[in-house]
Amino acid sequence: MLTSIEQLEALYGQPHERAVRKQIPFLNEDYQAMVRASPLVVIGSAGPDGLDSSPRGDMPGFVQILDERTLALPDRPGNNRIDTLRNVLHDPRVSLLFLIPGIGETLRVNGTARISAEPALLERFAVNGKPARTVLLVTVEAAFFHCAKAIVRSDLWNPAHHLERSALPSAGAIHKRLNDGQFDAETYDREAPARVQASLY
């Protein structure tokens, strides 16, 4: 087992200069373009009960750039676990990973977050007349892009490799197993499309 930074560096060597220079403490023009194009960001956070990675998705541009050091992410109706928000209240450090369909490169943004429920800010993110529940304001401390290797290796965006939904257990089936069979999976799955559409915002 490796137990020290020295062992890791001896095994992997030093990063290329380009890998070091691509990290900057703000969002430059290129990184801002990636944020605006992304319909999906995964937020990593840490709290007293452990770690969390939560997806946030909407139409491209749903994460707004207030300035080169500040991002605003709306929070929409969900399952009310609010793991990310609970964590932020305990430890404001967050890490964001922006994905863009069809694009190999991804963008990582590390920083600290605050939770705002200021009415004007919530209304700024309204969709169909429904404001955001809260808005996460992220102060950027480091931003850098990842090369396309992971996406290329996974062939993530190749439609030929997309699974049919029936290849995996349905959400209803998963709930049924977790509830020792005492759950109406068929009704849950049948009503899911309409339920999801009705509760997006």
TrEMBL record:
Query: Which InterPro entries does this chain map to?
Result: Pyridox_Oxase_FMN-dep (IPR024029), Pyridox_Oxase_N (IPR011576), Split_barrel_FMN-bd (IPR012349)
Query: Can you tell me which residues the record assigns to a coiled coil?
Result: none
Q: What are the boundaries of the signal sequence?
A: none
Q: Where is the Pyridoxamine 5'-phosphate oxidase N-terminal domain?
A: 28-147
Domain of life, per lineage: Bacteria
PANTHER family per the record?
FAD-BINDING, PUTATIVE (AFU_ORTHOLOGUE AFUA_6G07600)-RELATED
Protein name, please? Answer: Pyridoxamine 5'-phosphate oxidase
